[in-house]
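Protocol step 4 of 6: structure prediction from sequence.
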Amino acid sequence: MYYDIIIIEDEVDLGNVITAYLKLRGFNVLWFKNAMEALTYYSANPFNNKLVIVDVQLPDLNGFKLAAELVKINASQPFFFLTAHNEKQDRLRGLKIGAIDYISKPFEIEELVLRITNIINKFSPDPKAQAAVKSEYMNMGDIRYQKDQLFVLVPDGKEISLTVRESELLDQLAANINQVVKKKDLLLSLWGNDDYFSGKSLEVFISRLRRLFKSSNQVSIENVYGLGYILKVNKQEGDVTFEQE
């Protein structure tokens, strides 16, 4: 059988959460709780999997050693590591084996899904999927928002990384340039409720985005008291455009 994702993760609760969530998002997932079972399966099916996710700390075989065995079987297999440690030596070791990425525990499940989607699209043999992975960005005045790679390029030349939630919030505001976006709509869309604590979280993320734009003379986020927020772009100095590379 063909699988989008193979997961090797011995933490039962985490494995259940990841597997269930990915299946809900439409992925075909196969989960192993130890390295040897995964290796046995993979040895018989080395070309039937788009992506392999390997936990570094497994009970029967180190995740690095398992990944090295997978690469011996299929050198073109994309894979990345889940790890509770993010030390430089471990990262270098994994990259030398051929890992595409690392995700450190704990992580946001939305970020995991985004990285998985990007990797699968990038390494898909389907030309249509390859075309879909073209870098998409949005020019807002003197700010460039690289949507697919989660960063903004600001006027002083810095590339500033975004979290998934910051990107989601910026998407909502950028879809309504120079228009009020109601606070309640943002809360319901991104947090699922509009209670006090969610409201405070929204304020924190708005403050973070404002700090990103502090070097811009053309882009700002303004409060509309009692209603919501406006992402303002001075169109006389810089238009809003959507482009692909």
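Step 5 (inspection) to follow. The CA atoms of residues 221 and 231 lie 5 Å apart.
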